[in-house]
Amino acid sequence: MARTVHCVYLNQEAEGLDFQLYPGEIGKRIFDSISKKAWAAWQHKQTMLINEKKLNMMNAEHRKFLEEQMVHFLFEGGDVQVEGYVPPKEEEL
């Protein structure tokens, strides 16, 4: 049976993660209050950030920057600005 959490990102009940995907206190917070859907949205933004800023995950400063962006995105309602990215326009009906 799927876990349900109150997702702070979506502000609704949603399917929770199957296990803790991120280490430490932040990881526990994510596991307890972030849904699979919200985590997938973050993963998409994270990939864009890593590619745009050419981040190296072996670099502690780069990992710290990504963690700050993740907390901002998931828990503080902030969007992640990716320089040079223009979201596709929705088709008009």
UniProtKB/TrEMBL annotation:
Keywords: Iron. Gene3D superfamilies: Fe(II) trafficking protein YggX. One of its GO terms (biological process) is cellular response to oxidative stress. GO terms for cellular component: cytosol. Signal peptide: none annotated. GO terms for molecular function: iron ion binding. The keyword Iron applies. Coiled coil: none annotated. Pfam families: Iron_traffic. The keyword Acetylation does not apply. Belongs to the Fe(2+)-trafficking protein family. PANTHER family: FE(2+)-TRAFFICKING PROTEIN-RELATED. Could be a mediator in iron transactions between iron acquisition and iron-requiring processes, such as synthesis and/or repair of Fe-S clusters in biosynthetic enzymes. Necessary to maintain high levels of aconitase under oxidative stress. HAMAP family: Fe_traffic_YggX. This is Probable Fe(2+)-trafficking protein. It comes from Shewanella fodinae.
